[in-house]
Amino acid sequence: MGGNIVVIGGVALGPKAACRAKRLDPEARVVMVDRGARISYGGCGIPYFVSGDVSDVDELQSTSFHMLRDVAFFRDVKGVEARPRTEALSIDREAKTVRVRSLDTGVEKDLPYDRLVLATGSSPRILPIPGAELPGVRAVADLEAAMAIREGLSSGRVGSAVVVGAGFIGLEMAVALADMWGIETTVVEYAPTVLPTVLSPVLAAMAQRHMEEKGVAFRLGAQAARIEGEGKAERVVLRTAVGEETIAADLVIMAVGVAPNSELARAAGLDVSPRGGVVVDETLRTSDPDIFAGGDCAEIKNLVTGQDFFLPLGSLANRQGRVIGDNLCGGDSRFPGAAGAWCVKLFELSASGVGLTLDAARRAGLDAVAVQVSQFDRAHFYPDKDFMFLELVAERGTRRVLGVQGVCSLGDALVGRIGAVSALMPHRPTVTDLSLLELPYSPPFSSAMDIVNVLGNVGDNILSGRNESIDALAFAELFAERESGKAFFLDCREQPNAAPYLARYFGEWHNIPQGQLAGRLDEVPRDRTVVLVCNSGARSYEAFVTLAKAGFDRVVNVAGGMATVAKAGLAPEV
Prior knowledge:
Blueprint: E1 4-8, H1 13-24, E2 29-33, H2 46-51, H3 71-78, E3 81-83, E4 86-92, E5 97-102, E6 108-112, E7 115-118, E8 122-124, E9 137-139, H4 143-154, E10 160-164, H5 168-179, E11 184-189, H6 201-213, E12 217-220, E13 223-228, E14 235-240, E15 243-248, E16 251-254, E17 258-260, H7 263-267, E18 278-279, E19 291-293, E20 298-301, E21 308-309, H8 314-328, E22 342-346, E23 349-355, H9 358-363, E24 368-376, E25 387-395, E26 401-408, H10 411-424, H11 431-436, H12 451-463, E27 469-470, H13 472-480, E28 487-491, H14 495-504, E29 509-511, E30 529-533, H15 538-549, E31 555-558, H16 561-567
Parallel strand pairs: 1-2, 1-7, 2-3, 7-19, 9-16, 10-11, 10-16, 11-12, 18-20, 27-31, 28-29, 28-30, 30-31
Antiparallel strand pairs: 4-5, 5-6, 8-17, 13-14, 14-15, 20-21, 22-23, 23-26, 24-25, 25-26
Family: Belongs to the class-III pyridine nucleotide-disulfide oxidoreductase family.
Protein name: Rhodanese-like domain-containing protein
Cofactor: FAD
């Protein structure tokens, strides 16, 4: 085909599209511009550079074989003309030119294009509050910002920090500050839980509790009202339900999300959604067939809801870059959308998920139910194991899997399970598909009945009416009201497990091992709600079946058992 290909943006999608196009069409002239000084770097690695896990910033800009992805690399190795420190000012669709300006010389010129790629990414949102402009207030925007943050930390000028926002970047930065640098760190979040858009309240409580144990403080349900200081940030004033609170802060990290950089597209008359994302089809073409867009600046289809959504992830941008590279050269590659798979490491605990939480499903108008399970991530007799906690969100009626989230200290094991479910999501799996999902088995890696299979089985039982469960939060609320006498708490474990609770809550906590329950039904009241607990929810489910068969109709099973309740920090004190 030949001709001119111009790519605006040189971080994730842009380099992938440019290099793919040049490989497929060596006769094409490919020019990639970016206003940053550094191009083609791993932005998702910034928190790990700040923490010191990545020692040199060049590592984020290097290939796996240690070549720095700079201007010379793209010219000599890829045949792409890379122009950092060059800002795209406007697009003339009729003349098919892009007006650019060198940030070093101020010289402007027009670049001709036959096909154009918008890989303009996104920008961090900055809260419009007093003091946001003070020195010491930072957003995690690019490598330059990351280097400035790390320089401030290494200089010893930072003793306390406030991170505004408990999403991925906010929590990762909190870990970096508290773990490597020993900074007194507080995370402020307007929502009542951490990771509020991707993790259920019970799983979020587990993540928060683990981070608190590592020294990170949280102010949830709070809003940063202003930042104060004499010539630099010194404190953050919060607005809470009970009034104002002031927290010392030598460093303030703004991590309240990002917004698509779609100004060029909008000014050029391209379709942009009300949320600000560039509108594209499955070929990642915009409303102009010669202009493509992807990555953080574009919206894609949510494979669960069928609606368009904004998902700024480097993994998506790289996959989309290959699709665009194909189509720049006359191909017909498609990007159907995404289910939103994610993972994050928080000290020694990992969290991961795909699809919708229960709240998100209900906001989307879906009749959904949540199911929680806890189980060892590998054979119970294998010495190196840990509990994994998973939550399934499924649609009533269709029994379709809408999402799965989980936490576990063994992150690779967790991400492997979520990855398996993620691969199913484009095919609209049901809980039966999870029950029958074939996963590799060997005791050092999994159980013969894998936790994903158990999750599908429990989901099937609940959707079929064979089980009725409550989560750890509902259990904690019921136990807090135990003096009302409305609930009867029945521990289905063996007596040694139940003994501490029997001693502490005499007359309020009861114990009948599951294997003895059928012969001791007369000890269970029929005029109170019977709350069944065991370690993981398995024996209490068997007890539920026994009571249901005997005609008990006011019985609930604590999902995930005491392992889940304890991990979330909601277990009764003993």
